UniProtKB/TrEMBL annotation:
Protein name: SDR family NAD(P)-dependent oxidoreductase
Keyword Electron transport: no
GO molecular function, one term: oxidoreductase activity
Annotated keywords: Oxidoreductase
Top-level taxon in the UniProt lineage: Bacteria
Gene3D superfamilies, per database record: NAD(P)-binding Rossmann-like Domain
PROSITE patterns per the UniProt record, alphabetical: ADH_SHORT
EC numbers for this chain: 1.1.1.-
């Protein structure tokens, strides 16, 4: 790393759901840019510790912190950890999320509440907790989905949660703007992660169809989203708030 690359020098970030995939890539990218990072995880302690170890090996600073974002006390503990370890909090990435696809006839109460509790309530609780420590110049980045725009079939609950994230982003940008806290969302298209591989999405007809409808002709990689998050977290985006930045390779 050179000095010119340290766009997040001396800043402290919390990235929820950062043990794998997009969250892990964002945590690594932030550390590469000079930030100290809280790598949050719900169940993947080993994976989160591996992310922290990789950051440390590259000369960065990070700590793994367990917590379920959909629980008030745990959401507070995640953001409090940033202050306890590093003294302040400048950036929050609400990345933690779950998905499950099914036709509307098969949707269950359990699926609905699980996805909304983590994808929407969790975002709100973690933001609420982070705001106790944030001041002027802070940046909140919500990870939504291009699904809210392209509305794929058999994703009704998941897509509804991401539509909610779009709405929350707009409301919070207006609510927190007077405090000089920026709020934006990144809405990824189809990104190949450990999760999509394990769920069989990457090699499925659904996955292939998504790539066919992506102008750039490939699935995204976590690093494609991490670079956008770094921009939104940095002073390069000091005049950007309330935006839904779609990073989807031209998915239509």
């Amino acid at each position: 790393m050179t000095g010119l690359e340290h766009r997040l020098q001396d800043r402290v970030a919390v990235v929820t759901g950062a043990s794998k995939g997009i969250g892990a890539a964002i945590a690594k990218a932030f550390a590469d840019e000079g930030a100290s990072v809280v790598v949050n995880y719900a169940t993947g302690r080993h994976d989160a510790e591996a992310v922290v170890s990789g950051i440390a090996s590259a000369g960065g600073t990070a700590v793994a912190v367990a917590g379920d974002v959909s629980k008030v006390a745990e959401a507070r503990a995640i953001t409090d950890a940033a202050v306890e370890h590093y003294g302040h909090l400048d950036i929050l990435v609400n990345n933690a999320g779950v998905y499950e696809f099914a036709p509307v006839e098969d949707v269950t109460e359990q699926q609905f509440h699980r996805m909304f509790d983590i994808n929407v309530l969790g975002l709100l609780l973690t933001t609420q907790a982070a705001l106790r420590h944030m001041g002027a110049g802070a940046s909140i980045i919500n990870v939504g989905s291009a699904a809210s725009r392209v509305t794929p079939p058999e994703t009704v609950v998941y897509t509804a949660t991401k539509g909610a994230v779009d709405a929350v982003t707009g409301v919070l940008a207006k609510e927190l703007g007077p405090k000089q806290i920026r709020v934006n969302s990144i809405n990824p298209g189809f990104v190949e992660t450990e999760g999509t591989d394990a769920a069989g999405v990457t090699s499925s007809d659904f996955g292939r169809e998504l790539i066919e409808h992506t102008v750039l002709g490939r699935a995204g990689q976590p690093e494609d989203i991490a670079s956008v998050a770094t921009f939104l977290a940095s002073d390069d985006a000091a005049w950007v708030t309330g935006e839904q930045l779609t990073a989807a390779g031209g998915l239509r």
